[in-house]
Amino acid sequence: MKSITIKGSKRTELGKSSSKKLRNEDKVPCVLYGAGEPIHFYSNEIDFKKLVYTPDAHTVNIELGEKNQFNAIMQDIQFHPVTDRILHIDFYQLSDDKEVSIDIPVRLEGQAPGVLNSGGTLTRNKRKLKVRALPKNLPDYILVDISNLELGDKIYTSDLKNDLYNFLHSDSTVVTQVITSRASMVLEEETTSEETDETAVEGAEATPSEEGDKKAEGDKKEDNSKKEEDSKQGE
Fold first, then answer.
1. CATH at residue 113
2. Distance CA 96, CA 98 (A)
3. 114-159: per-residue pLDDT in tens?
4. CA–CA separation, 182 vs 180, rounded Å?
């Protein structure tokens, strides 16, 4: 997995007033867990731009001086409810032999026949999936092949299982699917309506013909009956 380096400094003062002062100086208070005692530090807010405002997943190399470097992942983040500025970030230190949980982005590969040939719509139910794995097995993204997806088909997390990491979702979780689009539904309704109209027209055209046949048959019977009466009178 790709890594981003964050340079910071250990905090000498803790508390709300100290944190507020740091934020006023465009710095973000942070805590690193998993390394024994929590380590409190701060860093420039702008340094978190590539880590926070991206769909990609990264590990973080935290540098608190030359001799204090930690490999970690971002565990939690808090934003201001109005300004959306970063208020606080929690990190968790990685250990080579200890599994961690992290959200991994989903990347689609290929083109779905259900979209190209059947007019369906591809929906992405999950843009990220939470996985649990050893740090060395954490993927940059989860690749999902949609080249065989027909109309109505779905891809579940159970279809993406592998030996490197485990999904923290149920096997029935839908990742992506091809559904019937509104346009294709309208087209189908119009086609059905046209077929119904054609059938009705054919039925209407057939009715006068049938009535004509019945009338001709009735006239023929009447002529035969008249001939029989004339024959009897002649006798």
1. 2.170.120.20
2. 6
3. 999 988 999 999 999 999 999 999 999 999 999 999 999 999 999 9
4. 7
